């Protein structure tokens, strides 16, 4: 057994091959989800700006059983119901990171956690400063604090095709921590009145959900109806219903036992992710992103303090917060980045985290629910701020992409054709011996050719 190492904890060092494959699969799924999300947002903007009356009529249409407090508008169903599926998947991702990913090691977790916190605090400070000086409302301080993982990973996957996996892992881990704090913000700051009876019954349902999982009970016909009941009770309690989704996601086991090819969490995530990325989140975008983008509306975004604070928070606050938090953590603690990464890479990814679409739209609706006009302006500012962040980050990533093209080719090289990239075999003693033998053989061949060229004979030389 090897002795424990005293080296500094290197966050985002070379990942194991299973983790790397898992990350690649996640990135492919998020890319598709990001494209669908973008398509739904564009469709909402076109619909709202061409046939605005029908758009408002559809998303304002109420349906559902009023007897149990669920007579909700289509927009409300999308925001509170469908997004619960999105947060359920986010809860599973968070659980996996806590038990099997980067967040399982407190020393390694310090870097993304501090970076995520700074990436939420600084945008809030920027919003607060702009609105304090401009006399605007401080209610929207939380709008620019969130990162949209689907959009951000889609941009990174499309533009940064040759960037190292460690950079993608940084964004993924950062976004998982970001989602956790966004959930806490929604639960703490956007819960007005609480129905303690409904909340208590919802908690009891969560306990039952957990006990059934511990007992190994299987069957979607058990868990799906129970999840719907838990969600309905949470919706009636006054606490945002998406909290029920993330709570159930966190309860799933994400570690594999002997004989298992996948953990229950991995299996459920594999089944539910397409529903989240392909249906729930795009429909939420369709019924939330439809705002008027006339010339006057765009002008208001850059002149009204509330909307300007959101744009600056996403574009400037996110970048400075994440980059500054990462640099300070690496500078003053024992955590450090992968030596292959450079600070311009971190700066580019920090700017990419300014894409705050899904959760920012949700928080904007919650923060200004009593002012529909301002709500639409806040949504417009989220769209514009996210677009600016995507363009700025895209330029930076494009520049860095060329630098890492050769590095990515080295990572994928498999000279012995054994199906395992050679970089994962560097730690094997037999690999070193084999490479040493190859180098010695090449050196001997060079000596023989030199002897032939000079007319001498190898047998006349001293073997030593």
How would you characterize the overall build of this protein?
This protein folds into 2 domains: 17-190 and 240-412, Up-down Bundle (Na+/H+ antiporter like fold); 428-460. β1 and β2 form a beta hairpin. It is globular and about 100 Å long. Helices cover 70% and strands 1% of the residues. It is mostly helical and 464 residues long. It has 17 helices and 2 strands. The chain has helices spanning 17-50, 52-59, 74-100, 106-134, 149-159, 165-189, 196-214, 220-237, 242-251, 264-288, 295-301, 305-332, 343-352, 358-367, 372-403, 405-412, 429-454, and strands spanning 62-63, 72-73. Mean pLDDT is 81; it is low at 1-8 and 457-464. The protein has a two-stranded antiparallel sheet with strand order 1-2. α4 packs antiparallel against α12, α7 runs antiparallel to α8 and α12 (305-332) runs parallel beside α15.
